[in-house]
Amino acid sequence: MSFETTRRHLLKGVALGAGATLLSPVLSRLAAHAAGDEQRAAPRRVIFVVQSNGLHQHHVTPEAINAPQDRGNRRPTNDTLFEAPLADHALPSAIEPFTPFKNRLTVLRGLSSRISEGGSGGHSTNHGALGCYPGGRILGQTIDLALGDVFTGLYRHLGLGILSRPEAMMNYSLCADGPDRPAPIQCNPELAYRSLFGSVAGGNSRQDFDRRTNLLDFMADDIRRARAALAGEERQKLDPYLEAFETLHQRQAHIERIQERLRAHAPRLEEHFRRPTETMRLEAQFELAAAAVITGLSNVVTLASGGGGQQYLSFPDLGIPVDGHHYGHGGGTNGKSYEECFVTVRQFHARLIADMCRKLQAVREGNGSVLDNTLIVYLSDSGESHHPNLYDWPVVLIGNLGGRLRTGGRYLQFPRYQSRNHRTLSNLYLTLLQAAGRPRERFGIADPGLRDLDQSGSIPELLA
Amino acid sequence: MRSHLPRFLAACMFGLPAVAGAQEGKSVAFVDLARPFLQKHCVKCHGAQKQSGHFRVDELTADVGKDVDRWIAVRDQLRDGLMPPPEHPRPDNAQTRNVIAWVASQTGVVASRLPNQGNLVPHELLFGKATEPAGVTAARLWRLSPEAYLGFVHDVARGRVNGLVQPFSLVPERGIKDFAGLYAIDEPSAEILLRNSEAIVESQTGYTIKDGKFSTKNDTVRELVALMNPDKAATRADLEAAVQTQFRLAIGRAAGKDEVERFIALYERCRKTSDQAGAARTMLQAVLLRTDAMYRIELGKGPGNRAMLAPDEIARSISLALLDRRDQPLTKAAEKAELATREQIAAHVQRILDDPKIDKTKFLKFFREYFEYGKAMDVFKEKPKTFLHSPNVLVSDTDRLVKHVLKEDRDVLRTLLTTDLAFVNYTESNNNKERKLEAKPVVVVNPNNDKGKKAPEFVYGFDAWPKEQPARNPKRLGVLMQPSWLVAHGANFDNDPVRRGRWVRERLLGGAVPDLPIGVAAQVPDDKHRTFRDRLGVTRETKCWKCHQKMDDLGLPFEQFDHYGVFRTEELVLDIEATAKNVDKKGKSLGEVLKGAKLDTTGKISDSGDPALDGAVSDPHAFVRKLADSELVRQVFVRHAFRFFLGRNETLSDARTLQDADRAYVGSGGSFRALVKSLLTSDAFLYRAAPTVAQGDPR
Known about the structure:
- The complex is a heterodimer.
- Chain A is α/β, with parallel strands linked by helices.
- Chain A has helices spanning 3-15, 24-34, 38-41, 57-60, 128-131, 143-150, 189-197, 203-228, 232-237, 239-257, 259-265, 278-295, 324-328, 338-362, 425-435; strands at 45-51, 82-85, 105-109, 158-162, 170-178, 181-186, 300-305, 314-315, 320-323, 364-365, 368-369, 374-379, 395-398, 410-413.
- Chain A has two domains: 1-41, no CATH class; 44-196 and 269-462, Alkaline Phosphatase, subunit A (3-Layer(aba) Sandwich), CATH 3.40.720.
- Chain A is built from 15 helices and 14 strands.
- In chain A, the strands form four sheets. In chain A, strands 2-14-3-13-12-1-7-4 form an eight-stranded mixed sheet, with helices on both faces. In chain A, strands 5-6 form a two-stranded antiparallel sheet.
- In chain A, strand 5 (170-178) and strand 6 (181-186) form a beta hairpin.
- In chain A, helix 7 (189-197) packs parallel to helix 12 (278-295), helix 8 runs antiparallel to helix 10 and helix 12 packs parallel to helix 14.
- In chain B, helix 27 (631-646) crosses helix 29 (672-680).
- Chain B is globular, with a radius of gyration of 29 Å.
- Chain B starts with 6 loop residues before the first helix and ends in a 10-residue tail after the last strand.
C-alpha cells in the first residue's frame, strides 16, 4: 500500500466536503434514491447472533420432517441434498418464537467445519466459528468483519454482547479483522449505549462524547506536529495514524448531524441497561443492535451471548442459576433436566431475535421494511453441542438480504461429511460474500479431512 | 570469486542514496556499464524489433526510479541466471554481477523494503573490500512491535489493566518480520489504542469515595490520581506535575515547556463541558497516544549525514533491541548524559547481555524467525491414527533447544545445525514440596480419547519418554531435523522438498528464488503409488527447472523423514494391486494397502557461490554438516542477525558493519552475544543520516 495514495484519497474526499469519504456509501444510496431506485437505495444489513454452548440439531429440526440422520449422534446420513418446506411443520419448541417469521426462516444442517476445532478445551471454537480456521488462534478476518467491508455503515462493524461478569467490558474472542487482529464485542450495555447514542443522551454520556471529540481533535493536531518535523517516507509513515484520528473525528461530526434520527430510534436508557442480570443485559444489547441498524450507525452487527473460551452464562431470571457448563455436562437444576435448561435458554434467545425482527419490520424502508433488507444468522461458536465434533454445524437464517438469497421457509440438509457434494460452513460464508457482491473463491482454511473435496465457492442452492 | 568494482560504480553505491554527485555517477554507470550490457545481451529479443514476453529494455534510461519495476525485473532475471536463455551466449560473470549491483543500488528502498528481499544485495560485495567509514541508517520511525507495546503498558501502568488488547500485528510473510519500514498505525489499531489508553489511565488513577472520603487504590500513580479528587480543585502545579510524570513514564523524558502548555490547554478545553476527573483523564490519555510513545523515534540529533542518536533515543532503541520494555538504568543514564560515547553505550549493552536475570526472549524470537520452525502450528494435518501430532509441543521443544544452545553461547550456529541433542515433549514445573523445577512430559496419552496412540516422543524416535533431557538423538541433527522444522516446511499431506530447499537457499546460502510466476498452478501429481521424489519429477521440465534447480535438490535429503517428522527407512506408497484385491465378498473396498518403497535421501548443493560447498550429498546428516562448516553459511547468518536487530535490509554501505559483526562472532568462538553487541554498537545502529529527498507535505 502506498501511504501517499491513501492520503490523497482522503484529501480528495475532504475536498468534496467534510465527511464525504466516510459517507460515500451513504451518498451513493442517496443518489440511487434520487434516481427512484428504492430497492437499490436501501442498505443491506447482516446481524450475526452467536450463542455459546452449541445449537443442537434437534432444536432446529422439526421432528415430522424426518431428516435422514444417525439416530445416535444425529449426523446427517444423506448423500444428496435433503430439502423440505418448513410451512408444513411446526417448529421445535426451542425455536417456537420464530413461528411468525417462518416464511423468512431457513434451517441449514449438514455444514461441517472440522477445521475450526481447537482452543478452549473443546468448549468454543472462538474465532474459528466465524473465521473457519482452527479455534486456538486468530488466522484471518471473520465473516462479519468481511461483510462490514461491503455494507459499510458509520461503524464498519458493531459487536455487542454479554459475559457472565457484569463488569467485563469487552469480548475479543469471536471476531477478527485479520490475522492476529481481534475485533471487539462491547459487553457493557450502558457503555455501548454511551458510545453509540451518547451524543443524544444528557449528562455523563454527553460529557464522554464531547471529551472524545476533543481528544480526537487534539491527537490529529499532535500527529501533524510530529509529522512536520519529518521528511520523505518517514513523514508519510505517519499519514495513516493521522488519517485515523481525522476519520474518527469526522465520525463524531457526522453523529452530531444525524441527532434527530438517533433521538427518534435510540432505546431508552432504562434500568435494564444497568441491571446485573444476564437476561436484562442481553435484552438491552438486542435493543441497541436493532437501533443501530435502523439508524444506519452500523449495517453489520454481531450479537454474542457469552462465547469464546469457556465464557458461559447462567440465567437466574429463567430459573437457571448454574452456568452453561453445568447443564452442558448433563447437570440439571431447580427440577429442570439439562435438556429443559437448554430449551429454556434457547427459547429466550429465540424470543429476543423475534422481537428484534418485529422492530426491524416496523420501520418502513422503500416499498417494504428494514427487515426485508436484513439477514440474521443464528449459530453457536460451539457448533452443534457443548463439546461439538463439528461434522454438522446447524445455522438458522432469517431474511433474504433484500432478495439476494433464496431463503425463507426452507429446511436444507447438505450431504454428509466426506460425501461427494458435502458443504462446509466456509461455503455458507462464501455464499454470503457472493450475495454481498464481493465473491471470493476461498474463505478460511481448508479442512484436511476433506482432501478429495473441492471446498471452494458458494452454495448455488442458497443464491437468488 | 570476489569482484572489484570500477571506481565510478563504487562511488555511487557506497554513498547514501541520492546524495549530491550521485546523479553524475549514475549516468556514467548506465552509459559505460548497463546500457552496453543490455544492448549486447537483451535488446535482440526485448527491443524495438521484438518484445518477447511483452518486455523491452531498449527504452530504459539511467533514471532507474522512473521505471523501477522493469529494472527490478532485469536485476532478478540476471541474478537468478534466468536470462539470457541457456541457448544464447553467456555474459561475463563479473560484468553481470556489476550490472546487478548497480541496479540494486539504484532501486534502493523500493526494492529491498521486504525482509525476504535482503539477499538481493550480492554477498561477495558485502564481504569483499569494505569502505570506510561504516554506513549509517537513515533517520526513521519504527512502530512498536506487539511485544514492545505490552512492555510499554507495563512501563506506564503499575497495576493491572483490565480489558487490554493488542493493537499491533506483524506481517505474516516468511522470515524476519519487524522492519522499521513496514508498519504504520491504521484506524482499527488507533481505535484499540484509544480504548487501551482509557483502560491504562483508569488503572493509573483508580480511586474510591467512601462516606464522602476520597482514597486512592493500590498501584496508582500519585501525581496522576491526585487530579481525581472532586473536593480538591487541580492547580496549575498539579497539572504540570501530572503531565511531566506521564511523559517520563510513556516517553522516557521530561516534557518541554510548549508541550506542557498544549496538554494543559486540552485539559482546559475538556473542563468546559466535563468534570475535573474526566478532563484530566483525557489529557493523560493523549500523552499515551503520542507518536513518540507508539514509535521508536530514531532521528539523530544534529546536522549532516552522520548524527548520533540522542541519548533518549539510544536508551529506547537499545532497550527494545534486547528487551521488550525500557531498561531503567539506560533511561537514567540518558537523563544524566551518560550515553555520549560508544564505550558508555557498549558497557550498558554488555551489562544487559551478561545479566542472567534479564530475559532474552528477543534472542529466541530471532531464531524463531530465522529458522521458522514456529510455522509448524500453521500446517494443518489430519490426525495420525497411531500417534499424537502436537505441533505446539514440537515448537516448544525446539524453543528449548535454542535456549539451551544460547545458554552455552559457543559456536551457536554450527551447534544449532548439527547438535544431536533434543528436547522431547519436555516441560518443567515447580515441585513445591522439594522446591525445585521438575521435568515432565507436556502431553501424555489420554487412555480414553487417545486409546492405542503413542505420545509425541514417538515422533522423535523414543518409545518411552526420556528422563534425561536434552536427550541424545543421533538419527537427527540440529534444528533442520527437528520435527517442528520439518512440519513447518512441509505440506498438509506430504513433505515439501521445494519449501525446504528454498529455506536452505535463502537462509543458509544467501540466494534468492523468484516467487511462483503468476498463472502457474504448482501441482505435484497425487499418484499415491509413487514416492514423493518421483512425483516431484514434474519440476525437471525446463520451464520449471529454471527456478526449481535452486530448491529441490537442497530439500530432498530431508526425505529421510515423513511429513510428521518421523525418521523412516522406506517410504510407504499405495500398493495398487493389493488394494484392488482388498475387498469384501460383495466387492466393496476394505481400504488402501500400502507398501514400502526404497528411500532416496541424496541431494546436491549447486551454484552456492562457494565452489568448495557445491557438490552431491548422500543424506541429511552429511548435508547439514557440510553446510555448518561453511564460511558463506555463517556470513549469511550474520546478515540475518543484522536485519533483525537493525530492522532493515543490509545495503552495500553496511559491508563494514557486517564484517565487524562476523569477526566478533568468529573471534569469540561463535558467541551470539558478541555478534549482537557488535551490531548494537555499530555506526549503523547508533548513527543516522538526515532523510534525503523531502517529498513535500501533500497538505
